[in-house]
């Protein structure tokens, strides 16, 4: 039976639970074990040691692979653990073309760790490049293109299929960090990407209560390398965190829909406020990526970036919000407001930050699933001059 995405959040098409799920438990058990007894010499239950694999983690990995249309997904202890493992696919001398507007932690990893290991990065606003522009960045050392779409926090939209076409032509991997859309709204592998990254901490787990990360691929050669790497380096997600993420994914569809609906209402309201100078949301027809977003995704998501009249105004809003929490992170059921300059993007060099358009009056909202009117009311009192 072929399942829709909503059903895949709750059920695997072919149950892998045989021999694992006792007593008819509806919730997949937490297999809190480091190791597994062998029935006899030369025999295995299928599990030997939890660094290699654990039943709860495997159930989660199969679920995420199914949601993204990959042949395999690896669950890691955080999004950054996933990206760090991914970097082990590359060797000294390799070059990666990376979008200039990325999650700040990814930039910090590339600049301080991957670079030290001999990997070089060419950084451009890929959403603004045509085929000639992107092709001109490719050198014989280039091995991959790394993008987010929409980007964090400037919401630049890149045409995944177009970039995939260029990557294929030049024999490069296309890696897409799909955290902002989640597999509910966008599936980069189906558009030609080779590898999808998720911070599972965000929309997938969805409750601001656990860290998780994923690498998903539809290529057997990459899967084999990644399985060797996770076994060898050991940052696989713990059984309990795997269970929390599985539990979060059960409601992915309804959370994504409600958060998006709330975001649309907030965007409409923000646009009418005199102290708001710019609202950046890919669901706005005036957003430069609107048409591409409509073509390649099933929604616009619930991340909203906006600029206010001054740094003082931005700080006063952060101090005055009550229902909305001033906190890093995104994608959870609670609405959070973030100040990218000092939080998520503090380690991004100032010149790059400015070039990307992140200023001291830029705020980022991760809209949750509260009542939309309550959220608007909170923003109204926070924006008020007093
Ligand atoms: C949060 C985030 C990450 C890092 O994930 P962690 O789970 O915090 O380690 C990577 N990419 C994007 C787009 C993110 O938002």
From TrEMBL:
InterPro entries: Cys/Met-Metab_PyrdxlP-dep_enz, Cys_met_metab_PP, PyrdxlP-dep_Trfase, PyrdxlP-dep_Trfase_major, PyrdxlP-dep_Trfase_small
GO molecular function: carbon-sulfur lyase activity; pyridoxal phosphate binding
BP-aspect Gene Ontology terms: methionine biosynthetic process; transsulfuration
Taxonomy, superkingdom: Bacteria
Required co-factors: pyridoxal 5'-phosphate
One Pfam match: Cys_Met_Meta_PP
PTM annotation (N6-(pyridoxal phosphate)lysine): residues: 202
Keyword set, alphabetical order: Lyase, Pyridoxal phosphate
E.C. code: 4.4.1.1
A GO cellular component entry from the record: cytoplasm
Family indicated by similarity: Belongs to the trans-sulfuration enzymes family.
Entry protein name: Cys/Met metabolism pyridoxal-phosphate-dependent protein
